[in-house]
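User:
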Amino acid sequence: VPSREKLAQQTRRLRRGQSLDLPELLRWLASNGFQNTNAVELPGEFSPRGGIVDIFAPDWYDPVRIELFGDEIDSIRRFEVATQRSLETLDQIDVTLLNERAGDREHFAGYLPENTWFYLIEPTDVEEEGRRYLERLERPQDYHGVASTLRQITRFPSVTAASVPTGSLETTCHLGI
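Assistant: Predicted structure:
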């Protein structure tokens, strides 16, 4: 996951009534990998038209339309791509744009509160599936490995569950506190 600092740096909050430097916003979108299109259809696109800009961020289900009155945000609405119909009026949105660079990452466990618990079901299977996933990646070195992830998890209290072997009437549950 991105570091907290990088996440904060790369997030813009846009609010109704806020003054907006539209050319600067458009430059920011383009410099962070968004495609300028005639009409947004896919995540990662934006479309400016006069006092309107449509943005479809990669982590959104629907794009938003920002309407300006001068340089002030007059309205923000989620809309459906196919029909262009408004779905919801919003007071504000957060637009987060992240480039994929390994140096900007930290482990997801760094975001978790101290009182977090883990419930690990079939940890041996989880470990094996994690290894298979990493083997399929083009650059597995850019990601945390299975062993280092399990080490991060064991800093927290956890419960481990495994299936009962055939013919057995018992299983073991360990509390790692």
